[in-house]
Design brief:
- The protein is α/β, with parallel strands linked by helices.
- The chain has helices at about 5-10, 50-65, 120-130, 165-175, 185-195, 215-220, 220-240, 245-250, 265-280; strands at about 15-20, 30-35, 35-45, 70-80, 90-95, 100, 105-110, 110-115, 150-155, 180, 200-210.
- α1 (about 5-10) crosses α7.
- It starts with a helix and ends in a 6-residue tail after the last helix.
């Protein structure tokens, strides 16, 4: 899952044999295989900004492909001075910060929060230890390889570009452990949570510091660097998971044994039904 064109393109840089997969409702997924990793197939979609469409398309992707895992790859604004443009944040906790109760003289926060899949969290934490994920980074990495942080993030349908605004103060006071802010991850996490507990994680690259200089940071290439670094880590995480058995065995000849059928008319009818079922399932088989 991605929100912006720069994020979508960063993921596609790692895929080969990419083909469009058109959902009956109009959503177009790009489906390909991770270069050099035949058993890892990925369906990528660009949701646009905002939690609502992120949630809707996460649910649609989950229903269409029944994936082994779902990853939201994108950029985020940093809320800590120790972060560096291009650093990667793996969200251990995702806050939806806009829930609350508005009184005459105060706003009482009523947040929702989702934690990362334990399995994905454990696999993700292994990658920085050996720096094996660096092989997925672009050839030219300014300032050396980025640092990976495992921290909470805050999410809402607001572009935060100030450290002094009312929202910035609320985040500092009520969501003090959040080190970054974005606009999609809570919708993604909520839909994944409702989708039969599908394994899900958000991987975000720091593109700016939400401090009034977002436009300048974007012009200086912050979004591109952040998107590429986040995509590199996400792809490394995906390849650390068990390969898709359906894809890995696709080249193996199938030789199932069936009992003999003596009623030839029934056999012909069953064959037609079997062929139709094969066609219907073929569009989604192999994306687990």
């Amino acid at each position: 899952m991605t929100a912006l064109p720069v994020e979508h393109a960063a993921v596609l840089e790692h895929l080969v044999d990419v083909r469009p997969h058109r959902h009956r409702s109009g959503t177009v997924f790009d489906v390909g295989t991770v270069a050099g990793h035949q058993g890892h197939r990925i369906a990528v979609v660009e949701t646009g900004a905002g939690t609502t469409t992120a949630a809707a398309l996460t649910e649609r992707a989950n229903a269409e492909f029944s994936p082994a895992a779902m990853v939201f790859v994108g950029v985020a604004g940093g809320l800590r001075d120790w972060l560096v443009i291009g650093d990667v944040v793996v969200a251990t906790k995702i806050y939806s910060y806009q829930g609350g109760r508005s009184e005459d003289d105060e706003f009482l926060v009523r947040p929702s929060a989702w934690s990362v899949s334990h399995r994905l969290d454990q696999e993700a934490r292994r990658l920085p230890r050996s720096n094996s994920w660096h092989s997925f980074l672009p050839d030219q990495v300014e300032g050396g390889a980025p640092v990976v942080h495992f921290e909470a993030i805050a999410v809402g349908d607001v572009v935060l570009n100030s450290r002094r605004s009312e929202l910035a103060q609320r985040l500092h006071k009520s969501y003090n452990d959040a080190v970054a802010v974005d606009m999609e991850s809570s919708g993604f996490a909520h839909a994944a949570h409702l989708g039969d507990q599908v394994r899900a994680v958000a991987v975000r690259g720091i593109s700016d510091f939400a401090d009034g200089r977002k436009a300048a940071a974007d012009r200086e290439g912050g979004q591109l660097l952040a998107a590429r670094n986040a995509a590199a880590f996400a792809i490394a995480l995906i390849t650390a998971l068990e390969p898709d058995e359906g894809t890995a065995r696709a080249a193996e000849p199938a030789s199932p044994e069936f009992p003999a059928v003596h009623n030839t008319n029934a056999a012909r009818d069953n064959a037609r039904v079997g062929q139709q079922i094969g066609v219907n399932l073929g569009s989604v088989r192999g994306f687990r």
